[in-house]
Amino acid sequence: MAKNFKKPKHQSQSEISKAKESIQVEYNSLLSFSFKYFDIVEGKFDPYTRGQDYFVVLINRLKELSRLKIQQFYSNRSKALRSHPIDWDQTTENSFNIPGEEQIVSTPYQFELSANEYGRIHGFVIDSVFFIRWLDPDHNLYS
Fold it and tell me: 120 with 111: CB under 8 angstroms?
């Protein structure tokens, strides 16, 4: 005897937007990082063109920033961090090119890995998690 299975109900765009708006960010939460949406774009956002020093600096930087509260990440305007939203109109890209990006990404963000030598990290924040999309050691997001 065959069982009848119900199809899962897909959320509409407005349901997803309402759910995102209802999330209360705890501004005392510590910043953390995810590589869930990480992408390497050969020749543009390609960290493998750098030596192992790059990856040592990357890991140390992420470790250092994971001590910040999310409110500090958003409000810190120091030259050492240079954390700020990305304005796509000023870049070589139009978006992160993630399927369903409109529902996932509220504000694209970037911060410096170190003072100019190692470039930037681009991604977005959900709650207190910074989702890393691109490592940009050669500052290729901006022309």
Answer: yes
